[in-house]
Amino acid sequence: MKGNIMLDSFDKGWFVLQTYSGYENKVKENLLQRAQTYNMLDNILRVEIPTQTVNVEKNGQTKEIEENRFPGYVLVEMVMTDEAWFVVRNTPNVTGFVGSHGNRSKPTPLLEEEIRAILLSMGQTIDVFDTNIKEGDVVQIIDGAFMGQEGRVVEIENNKVKLMLNMFGSETVAEVELYQIAEL
Predict the structure, then answer these.
(1) 25-67 residue pLDDT tens
(2) Where does the NusG-like N-terminal domain lie (predicted)?
(3) Do residues 141 and 183 touch, judged by C-beta distance below 8 A?
């Protein structure tokens, strides 16, 4: 388990780096190398380039290729200390943090729901997140057809959650993904 996604300052969070388009892999490589060189592996935790598989037809043949979902952007999970910010910000081909408003201001981390959706779309399992949600808890659905409803957790298995919802005056069981709910 990796821990919570969005925490208070000086705790870890997911941030978006803006890079020169086409240099995303080089930025990832450089950033991981710099984290090791500057002894920042406790602060710069993960670097991800969101990709998707697409089918491309060429010369009458269909081929699957990995394509960058967000050209010019790289995701980094890090503890936002002054030192880590400096190392990341000064990595070659990084032009800045998304959500930073200049004057050396620290950027805003992604919301937990945003990073969950991105990582799940990349085929990574949701179990990289700590969750304090357990059977019997009342949660709010934050995504999907039941968004905005509250329900009681009946079962959690393989990143799927069965909830008891009160709909039309009777209790109904609904199944949602773990990333679609939030603690109240």
Answers:
(1) 999 999 999 999 999 998 998 999 988 888 888 888 888 888 8
(2) 11-122
(3) no
Q: Which CATH architecture has domain 12-127?
A: 2-Layer Sandwich (3.30)
Q: Which of 106, 112, 122 is nearest to 47 (CA)?
A: 122
Question: What is the distance between the alpha carbons of residues 128 and 116, in angstroms, rounded to a whole number?
Answer: 9
CA distance 15 to 116: 13
Which residues are CB-contacts of 29 (< 8 A; sequence separation ≥ 6)? none
CATH topology of domain 138-183: SH3 type barrels. (2.30.30)
Average per-residue pLDDT for the chain: 83
> Do the Cβ atoms of 3 and 130 come closer than 8 Å?
yes
Question: What residue spans define the domains of the chain?
Answer: 12-127, 138-183
